[in-house]
Amino acid sequence: MSVQRFQWDDTLLTGVAMIDTQHKEYFRRVNQALASAETDDEAGCLKELQFVQEYALDHFDAEQNVTTFHEYPGYEGHLTQHQTFASRLDALAEALSSEGFRTDVGRRLNALLVEWFVRHIRTEDQRLGKYLKDRPRAGQA
Prior knowledge:
- There is one protein chain.
- The chain is mainly alpha-helical.
- It has four helices and no strands.
- It has helices spanning 17-38, 42-69, 75-99, 105-134.
- It is elongated and about 50 Å long.
- It starts with 16 loop residues before the first helix and ends in a 7-residue tail after the last helix.
- The relative contact order is 0.18.
C-alpha cells in the first residue's frame, strides 16, 4: 500500500511558537503511523495512532487554554472542531482495532490525520494566531 507522507511547509505556521512546535511534532508522529501502515505493521501503526490520539488531545487542551486565557471570540467553534476530530479519531482507532487493517487504511488515516488537520490549521488555527498577534500586549496602549 502506498501512502503519501506529510511534508511540512511554513504556510502552516500560526506565529504562535507553542502551537507551531506542537503541530510539527504531531505531523512527525503521523508520518510514523503512515509509514507503519504502509509496511503493514499493524502493531506499530496502532501504537503510533495511540500516541497521535493522546498527543492531539494534549495539543487541543493547550490550544483551548490559550483561547480561554486570551478570551478568543471563536472559542466555541474551535472547541467544537477539536471535539469532532477527537470523536472521528476514536472511531477510526476503534475500527482499525476491531476490523484489522484493510487496503484503505492508509487513505483513511491520511484523510483524517493529515487532510483534516491541515484544513484546521489553515483556517481555525491561523485565525487564532492572527487574533493573538493582533492583541495588544499587557502594558502596551
